[in-house]
Amino acid sequence: MLRWIRQQLGFDPPHQSDTRTVYIANRFPQHGHYVPQRFADNRIISSKYTIWNFVPKNLFEQFRRIANFYFLIIFLVQLMIDTPTSPVTSGLPLFFVITVTAIKQGYEDWLRHKADNEVNGAPVFVVRSGSLVQTRSKNIRVGDIVRVAKDETFPVDLVLLSSDRIEGTCHITTTSLDGETNLKTHYSVPETLVSRSVSRLESLHAVVECQQPDADLYRFVGRITITQQGEEIVRPLGPENLLLRGARLKNTKEIFGVAVYTGMESKMALNYKCKSQKRSAVEKSMNTFLLIYLGILLFEAVLSTILKYAWQAENKWDEPFYNQKTEQERNSSQILKFISDFLAFLVLYNFIIPISLYVTVEMQKFLGSFFIGWDLDLYHEESNQMAQVNTSDLNEELGQVEYVFTDKTGTLTENEMLFRECSINGVKYQEINGKLVPEGMTDDSLDGSSPRLSCEELLFLKAVSLCHTVQISYEQPGDGPGDPFSHANGFSSQMEYYASSPDEKALVEATKRMGVTFMGSHGETMEIKTLGKSEKYKLLHILEFDANRRRMSVILQTPSGEKMLFTKGAESAVLPFTTGGEIDKTRVHVDEFALKGLRTLVVACRHFSAEEYVEVDRLLHEACTALQQREERLAEVFSFIEKDLELLGATAVEDKLQEKVQETIEALRLAGIKVWVLTGDKHETAVSVSLSCGHFHRTMNILELVQQKSDNECAEQLRQLARRIKEDHVIQHGLVVDGASLSLALRGHEKLFMEVCKNCSAVLCCRMAPLQKAKVVRLLKTSPEKPITLAIGDGANDVSMIQEAHVGIGIMGKEGRQAVRNSDYAIARFKFLSKLLLVHGHFYYIRIATLVQYFFYKNVCFITPQFLYQFVCLFSQQTLYDSVYLTLYNICFTSLPILIYSLFEQLVHPHVLQSKPALYRDISRNSLLSFKTFLYWTLLGFCHAFVFFFGSYILMGEDTSLMGNGQMFGNWTFGTLVFTVMVITVTLKLALETHFWTWMNHFVTWGSIAFYFIFSLFYGGIIWPFLHTQDMYFVFVQLLSSGSAWFAIVIIITTCLFPDIIKKVFYRHLQPTSTQKSQMYSNRVVIGDDFIALQPLTRAKNQLGKISLLRPTTRASAAWTPCAATRRGRTGAPGWAGWWSK
């Protein structure tokens, strides 16, 4: 326990050296001076709190929020000094907010604790003392031999020792780690693969030396030293030998592995990344307004304090006959009295800062986020996937997007690869009915049914079918994965290919149709069938693909004993290293394929002499066993091997566009949103796809910043592009940038590069690395204009871009769920982006913008009469309202109408918003929360407050009798009249702002006013025994019994709201905005089910509950939705609100 505490405090790090030594089965050396290394245990901790620190830690985090801390100070001031209002008025709302938030966060952390306990307590099997022992996952130690069975998840990071397969391999999926769903093959070293039993493992003497824990999932450097018969054998270990925690074992009965990284030192735990807290522009504006109102509060408090002392300069007001001072009060410090009075006024006016604003905003965001998941227009029937919200804090940000950064493959395209064409020995071919046909010929011109392949064609197809990492699954009637070569034994089996990329799978399937079939690998043997004849190749080495080389290779021994290298990769990564073959013709063909939007790969080979291969094998072994700088040494060896290549040809596969991509991009462009495509594809392919999807127009002037070699060359090219844009300012421009040129541009010419980009209608970045995508997003995000950015992608390589942008959207595609898990929102197809932004984003923004400003408006109306009242009562700090009214104003009397408004309001029909994307421009750049709009609402609040106060004051001036018996009203009646007028006016003001009425709006609007009257009658009409004083007894009843009071209420409300009505009518008819014009148009829209934005929950609930959802074709004319209700005075009662009430 003491050691764990020291580790947590940083005084006792668990490991000191750069490498760790792991003794398999924890067989440590017997000599006495050996000191074992100390490693972390295998517990996973994702929770934030413990039972001991929850209260202090949670309170500390909550009071870091400026509004909570402010109200805590006010509450403490009320406790310490004599203030005009009860501490309950500040303490109760604060306690409510703190308690609700603490319960929510505590529940979420309890779920994390529960998940941690399930993981840490999971049963596992380890080899100890010569037997297989069951224990809990948290008890695994570094050096333990762990057994994992089929379909189980690896509990620690393991180095594979053996499997039930003869060749010592196993298949795994890493979907939970990197989002890739394909099967990956991992290998054990030859000396340990025979240890398939517990007894053999118990007799194994081996030591693993490896690097210390590293978050990189694809990097592992180590070596294993096996002692056999007194001889030490050293074998290299790499990522292909490491089984990561969180991955799952597939198509393998069981494996044994030694634990090397445990608990929070496993690669999965090191990749836990707390997503940075994204804050919306509305939240930033809200905090700014809060500071302004804090300034108003301090000004009012200081002014009232100064005026109080100025008034009391006269003796008759300083110490009137009815309020004589005590001796202690006369002798007290003037400075302390001034501070005390200032704090008392601060408490009196503190309600101008609305603490309930935060609670209402959080409720609005949380409840409003469900509408995205309920929207059937965002449901994808084929994959049975609906839109999901991972964070509700950014709903309104969807209405403020100015730049969209999108991936290409899997986002704009389907990520379904189809083989289309190829080039072999300078001749173009295409596939027709499973046959390889030269360009210009047809299937009819070929005689015979079986394809006849030339030597060049055959070698090309063999290279494609052997140079890959494709795995095969044979599904047989019995249990188990089956023998890869069971087809040779006469068993009937279904063969299915699994590949790390769709390209490889498409190519291997294509060669199978053309007569060269990959039959699988067995240990070091790869088998293919060439026109029905079996051939077996010995796999000597695999030169794995990496992003720097952009190619992969295999070294094989042919059936004749010859050593050969097959290489495939991007044309820019292979062609420069070729010395033979039809290089020029192939390059032309590759460019032609790219212009058609096809993805290209170039294939080449190399023949090794016996001497050359011996040298190659030695260099590879030395580089693979190096513990230091292994990657650099391997890169050098790979470059030495992959040269002097003979070009065989090139392949071209098609990745078809998703449905309605062109219409979506055009809608975004009309909405004023600039679209940037960031892809790793080659220049020509990317440009072709951009043209086909409408990202680039045919009439657009395409500018290029590609193949720049130096800083000076890049800067000069950027200056030329800037001049061309200025000269041709009438024409739309598109910019193409490649990864290398982008690196140069970002190095020292960011300002010039940004100037060029901002003057282009569309930008395409090709040959991009994942980190470069994030850098581009950050560059735009931090530019002086600070535009709101959105990134959308489907793969693990898009995660950094998604997390960097203001709003990240994951596509539920074929590349796993990594992007979805790290995104803020997830949708099934790119086409859904238009409705997500143009409809949902529009609605969320106008709702929360009105909510924030209305809250400040109604609190100005609330507290300004209190400030004005001090001029009447000689700044005696007498409160105008009763303490109960002060407490319940924001909690009960005025909270529900604005909450319902912020959930359901629609300025324009959703169909109109989608058909007129330009309406999105009306709300861009946070226009509804501009300082001008904020000033309007604030001044409106002050004006209404002045009317409330002085209207009531004039009516109830001196010597005015309002009762039938001649009795006059007192100060509590006056305050209640002002409060009554205020509650009705602020509620009706919101009703004037409401464009979309449902029965719920009617219920909470008129219900809030009715509740105020009913509550006041009960509160003032009964003597409550638990109240010490009851100043409001019978006050409200007396007020309502006066006809003059009713007349005053009507006159004051009309005086406040009539100018608003006149202003709205005037602007709507004389200076209508495009949104107001669309409102008139939307009244004429025939509302059908096709145009519904948010379908009723009664139907959505039933439909979404089905495994396979079929979209209804019946029309929902009477069903309630925020867009299906008519706008001619009637509301649809049936609907999700009706379902809710049931």
TrEMBL record:
It is found in: Early endosome; Endoplasmic reticulum; Golgi apparatus, trans-Golgi network; Membrane. Residues 820-1073 form the P-type ATPase C-terminal domain. It catalyses: ATP + H2O + phospholipidSide 1 = ADP + phosphate + phospholipidSide 2; a 1,2-diacyl-sn-glycero-3-phospho-L-serine(out) + ATP + H2O = a 1,2-diacyl-sn-glycero-3-phospho-L-serine(in) + ADP + phosphate + H(+); a 1,2-diacyl-sn-glycero-3-phosphoethanolamine(out) + ATP + H2O = a 1,2-diacyl-sn-glycero-3-phosphoethanolamine(in) + ADP + phosphate + H(+). PROSITE patterns: ATPASE_E1_E2. Mg(2+) binds at D407, T409, D794, D798. Residues 124-209 form the P-type ATPase A domain. The chain crosses the membrane at residues 66-81, 288-311, 342-361, 836-857, 934-956, 968-991, 1003-1027, 1033-1058. Gene3D superfamilies: Calcium-transporting ATPase, cytoplasmic domain N (3.40.1110.10), Calcium-transporting ATPase, cytoplasmic transduction domain A (2.70.150.10), HAD superfamily/HAD-like (3.40.50.1000). InterPro entries: ATPase_P-typ_cyto_dom_N, ATPase_P-typ_P_site, ATPase_P-typ_TM_dom_sf, ATPase_P-typ_transduc_dom_A_sf, ATPase_P-type_domA, HAD-like_sf, HAD_sf, P-type_ATPase_IV. ATP binds at D407, K408, T409, E504, F545, K568, R599, T679, G680, D681, R767, K773, N797, D798. One of its GO terms (biological process) is phospholipid translocation. Its EC number is 7.6.2.1. GO terms for molecular function: ATP binding; ATP hydrolysis activity; ATPase-coupled intramembrane lipid transporter activity; magnesium ion binding. Its cofactor is Mg(2+). It is a multi-pass membrane protein. It comes from the Eukaryota. Belongs to the cation transport ATPase (P-type) (TC 3.A.3) family. Type IV subfamily. Catalytic component of a P4-ATPase flippase complex which catalyzes the hydrolysis of ATP coupled to the transport of aminophospholipids, phosphatidylserines (PS) and phosphatidylethanolamines (PE), from the outer to the inner leaflet of intracellular membranes. May contribute to the maintenance of membrane lipid asymmetry in endosome compartment. Component of a P4-ATPase flippase complex which consists of a catalytic alpha subunit ATP11B and an accessory beta subunit TMEM30A. This is Phospholipid-transporting ATPase. It comes from Esox lucius (Northern pike). The gene is ATP11B.
